[in-house]
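Fold this: Serine protease
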Amino acid sequence: MEKRVAAELSTDPVFVATEEQDSVESEGEAQEEKGMQKIIHETQKSVVVIETDMAQGSGFLYNDKGDIVTNAHVVDGVNTVRVRFSDSEVHTGTVIGRSNNVDLALVRVDSLEGVEPLPMLENEYLEVGTEVMALGSPNGLENTVTTGIISGRDRDLEIPPYSYEDVYQISAPIAPGSSGGPLVEQTTGKVTAINSAKMTEGDIGFSIPINDVLPQLNEWSENPQTHHETDIQEVPYEKPAVDMDKEAATYVVRHYFDSLNVDDFHSAYNMLSERWRQGETYEKFKSRNDSLGFVEIREVDITMVGDEAKVMLSLVEEEGTEDHWYQATYTVGEENNQHVIVDKEWELVE
């Protein structure tokens, strides 16, 4: 397939900005930042943690059949895995495709059939200098986002037993646990590559262009590989330890405010406990939060109380030209194998 470059050089003339143009540019930068936040938020919904008894990596939903792309080394030696989303919901996945020489694998989660996947940047290759974002769960830190650029193209390297040919070199930092996560084009949110490897020193990473492997992914999706029953290693779900509960509780609260900040009220509402939702309809919840300004979390402290986590926050609500400071406590518990927000307290700080 001919490689067509997505970015083009601009021949726009250079100009000197006036104060009015500076103001317009500032507004444009604010809108661009908000747009980037929305892209990150929407992308994170389809990025998962893939767990086995031997490894942990990342993956992302690539079609509406419930198929998740990851690296072969993440699912090496197993045929069933745990797939965990940002809301702590856990699914069982089956490896339906795995290459022996390309670091690529495909996992199917039947319960995710019909769920909207991430958009792919098909038939286009990014130019050096294009801004990108790498998403994954490095060192167990779920849905971490790092930014950088395409710093090189058509790189070749060997990490036995896998060969990496014509891959992107990226400056966005990646770490163990990020393997299999998506590399997305920053302005569109489309998946352009699969984060796969990094140099032992520095922040140089390598990502497999999605267009180079889409034919193989499509083939596995249409004709899944079969495994001998005696070869299947079951991966039972185990309840996370208390320390992980703390991390998950903090993540849930942060993700809750991220959702509100981009007006994704459905996601925020679904993170509330069943009892909370029984007492407040979605319409009332949306109406109550519709006028909420942008909320920034400044400080976080966590206390475990029995099976629940008390997440204490210092919050700043940016409303127009005014800032309002609050002390808030969100109680996070477990419900149906998910972490949910069960209660909250807000106090205005003068």
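Residues 1-19, 21-28, 228-244 have pLDDT under 50 and may be disordered. The longest strand covers residues 144-159.
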